[in-house]
Amino acid sequence: MKHVWLCLLALLLIALEGMAMNLLPSSLLYGEWQIVPHWTLLFVLLLSIYYDSNETYQSLWYALGTGLFVDIVYTDVIGIHMMVYVLVVYIVHGLNKLLQSNVLVVTLLVLFGVVTGDTLLYIIYSFLNIAEMDWGTYAMQRLLPTMIGNVVFFLFTFVFLKYLMQKLADDN
């Protein structure tokens, strides 16, 4: 039953990612800054930190599924988000084994995951000639606002998601 709740929450976050652009003020949308919500990646990263143990990798399956679903719903190229989500979750899962899971470390791990994921997506889309920004423009107008926006979302949802993940992990 717990996997059903986790899947429903992941689907809700995928839907909210698309609606978030409509909820943001138009000055943020049509200005120079571009905020890209990576809430599903954030959710899977927290799943990796608080739900998985050192020996389990269930969050990789969630990263695979949510990444594929994001690709199907929001992009024209299938598999890019799926690959990036799995790679980032795997790296953060490995780093989490080495570090203690306090609020500061988890915030830095999530920030690292979002920055790595968004940068990898930019690099892949640049190779495919889909991204039309140069690196400096991307870093200042998209990466920095995306970091700030996702950290703000993380700080608002951290307590709830941490409690949910730990409760579901304890039920194992």
Q: Please work out how many helical segments DSSP would assign.
A: 7
The total count of strands amounts to 0
How much of the sequence is in beta strands?
under 5%
Shape: globular
Low-confidence stretches: none
In whole angstroms, the N-to-C terminal distance is: 11 Å
**Helix-strand category:** mainly alpha
- Give me the Rg, rounded: 16 Å
| Percent of residues in helices | over 70%
* Rounded mean pLDDT score: 90
Largest sheet: none
Number of domains: 1
Order of helices and strands: HHHHHHH
GO cellular component, one term: plasma membrane
Main location: membrane
Transmembrane segments: 36-53, 60-92, 104-131, 143-165
Subcellular location: Cell membrane
Structure description:
The protein is mainly α. It has one domain (2-170). 79% of the residues lie in helices and 0% in strands. It contains 7 helices and no strands. It has helices at 2-23, 26-29, 39-51, 58-74, 80-98, 103-127, 135-170. Helix 4 packs antiparallel against helix 5 (80-98). It is globular.
Fold topology:
Blueprint lengths: L1 H22 L2 H4 L9 H13 L6 H17 L5 H19 L4 H25 L7 H36 L2
TL;DR of this structure?
The chain is mainly alpha-helical.
From the structure above, extract its key features.
172 residues, mainly alpha, 7 helices, 79% helix
